[in-house]
Amino acid sequence: MTTIKKAYASATDEVIRTLEILVSGADPIRVCTGFVNRLLTLEDETEAEFIAGPLSIKRPSKSASGQQTLYLSIANVTSQGQEAIEAALESGEEVPVIYREYLASDLSAPATNPYRMTLRAGGFQGIMIQIEAGYFDLLNTQWPRRRYTADEFPGLRYI
C-alpha cells in the first residue's frame, strides 16, 4: 500500500490538495486545502507558495464517453485572478490546470503524479470561481497524428 493510500485510509488531515492555474501573462493562481499558506516544492524542484483556502473537486463520473471533466470550486479568488481567468477564457488560449497532492509530513515533492488538465470553462459568483477542466481528449484526436501528404512525402504521388 502506498503512503498516499495509507493517509487516505487513516482519515486524517494528512493529505494536502493543491491546484495551480497557469494563465499566460499573469501570476499563477495557486490554492491549497487547509488553513495555513504553504511553501511547497513542485516536481521540478522549485518552491512555490500556495494560498490556503476552500477547494472543492468533483471528479468525473464513470462513462464510456471519453470526455473526462473535473468540476472545481475555489473560494477567495482575488480580483487579479478573476481578471486573468476571464481574459484567458475570452482569448481562447489553452490554460493549464495542475492538481497535486502532498503529504503534510513531506512537502519536498508531490505524493502522487500531478494531474495536468486544460481549462475548458469557468464562471464567477462573488469571490467564488467554478471552473471545468479536462484531460487530454483521446477520442477527438486524429490518428495517425502526423499527416502523410505528397508535399511532405513525394513518393506518395506514385502509389
Task: Write structural notes for this entry.
It is a single chain. By secondary structure, this protein is mainly beta. Helix content is 13%, strand content 36%. The protein contains 2 helices and 9 strands, in the order αββββββαβββ. It has helices at 3-10, 79-91; strands at 15-21, 29-32, 38-41, 47-52, 55-58, 69-74, 96-103, 115-125, 128-134. The chain has a 9-stranded mixed beta sheet. The protein is globular and about 70 Å long. The termini are far apart. The mean pLDDT is 80.
What fraction of residues sit in β-strands? 35-45%
What is the radius of gyration computed over CA atoms, rounded to a whole number of angstroms? 19 Å
Structural class: mainly beta
* SSE pattern: HEEEEEEHEEE
**Regions with little confidence, pLDDT below 50 for 5+ residues:** none
What is the helix fraction of residues, given as a range?
Answer: 10-25%
How many helices? The count is 2
**What is the arithmetic mean of pLDDT?**
80
Largest sheet: 9 strands, mixed
**Order of strands, widest sheet:** 3-4-2-1-7-8-9-6-5
Give the beta-strand count. 9
What global shape is seen?
A: globular
Span between termini: 55 Å
Topology overview:
Blueprint: H1 3-10, E1 15-21, E2 29-32, E3 38-41, E4 47-52, E5 55-58, E6 69-74, H2 79-91, E7 96-103, E8 115-125, E9 128-134
Parallel strand pairs: 2-4
Antiparallel strand pairs: 1-2, 1-7, 3-4, 5-6, 6-9, 7-8, 8-9
